[in-house]
Design a protein that fits this description.
Strand content: 25-35%
Order of helices and strands: HEEHEEHEEEEHEEHEE
Number of helices: 5
Structural class: alpha+beta
Distance between the termini: 95 Å
Shape: elongated
Number of strands: 12
Largest sheet: 6 strands, mixed
CATH topology of the domain at 55-144: Phage tail protein beta-alpha-beta fold
CATH architecture of the domain at 55-144: 3-Layer(bab) Sandwich
Length: about 280
């Protein structure tokens, strides 16, 4: 049967087609939406009665965090979603990985070795509390494609303020050296091959941290302005080890690039010391 279009509707039909083309063109010019992390609150896939799930995931926190996984042609997006829920941490998947099927088996691996088996490119962002003996807190996991590139530095590490270092002699109570004597710098910070060296003589802690941030090239947030004085001579240690020696009130945010076995600092925060609760009589 042939379809019939009345002449009275030809102009209306043409106008509708033009409007549709314009709408499609407008949508095609919209920027691509940002990739969203795997929804940790969404329900992971469940097996129907009599049907076995294609993977078994176990996450233990004692004595240390360890992961076990057995998967046979399981959708990696389902595994990542389940992992995100159990770790209470966002997991970001690369575009090519979202539809990939995973067949793998490993048992009781710590976090980073386990993640390296799940993706060719892996980044993990951490928060380190210099005054705590607890392991670094995982802020975000990125299971990326081979050539996807590094995630934005602020993907999960956010900060709204940044302090500025004003250079000058901050050493109080020290007489100036005579012209014939060598003047020793009261604060010297060097950073090379991911190794940090700090030599400080009677320097306020905020000034030392700002100098470290300037040398490394990361933002520093000074929330506690108390002038804690630092006398230190630290040579060629990781940034994490240095800040642990400087003060128990520092928060350091770092990114681990598991593919290249590198760790880089993202942000420094001098936080207010924890408040002590006074017990009543």
């Amino acid at each position: 049967m042939k379809s019939v279009v009345h002449r009275a509707h030809v102009k209306s039909l043409f106008a509708a087609l033009v409007l549709l083309v314009c709408t499609v063109a407008a949508f095609s010019q919209q920027p691509e939406p940002a990739r969203k992390p795997v929804d940790k609150d969404a329900k992971p896939q469940t097996a129907k009665p009599g049907v076995k799930l294609p993977y078994t995931l176990t996450v233990k926190t004692r004595p240390i965090l360890n992961i076990s996984l057995k998967a046979e042609k399981a959708n990696i997006a389902d595994v990542a979603q389940d992992l995100s829920k159990r770790l209470k941490t966002p997991v970001f998947l690369g575009t090519e990985r979202q539809k990939e099927l995973l067949s793998i088996e490993f048992s009781e691996l710590t976090l980073e070795p386990a993640l390296q088996l799940l993706s060719p490119t892996v980044y993990v962002d951490y928060e380190i509390d210099s005054g705590s003996q607890k392991p670094p807190r995982v802020l975000g996991i990125f299971l990326y494609d081979v050539n996807q590139g590094e995630p934005p530095l602020s993907a999960v590490v956010h900060g709204s303020t940044q302090s500025m270092l004003i250079e000058g002699n901050t050493e109080d109570g020290v007489e100036p050296e005579s012209d014939g004597e060598k003047v020793e710098e009261p604060l010297r910070v060097t950073y090379e091959n991911y190794q940090l060296s700090v030599k400080a003589r009677k320097q306020p802690l905020p000034v030392v941290l700002l100098k470290i941030g300037e040398t490394i090239g990361i933002p520093v947030d000074i929330r506690d302005e108390k002038m804690e004085i630092v006398d230190a001579d630290i040579s060629k240690l990781s940034v994490e080890d240095v800040v642990r020696q400087l003060s128990p009130n520092i928060k350091l945010f770092v990114r681990a690039d598991l593919t290249r076995s590198e760790r880089r600092a993202l942000r420094l925060v001098l936080a207010d010391p924890p408040k002590t609760v006074q017990e009543g009589p």
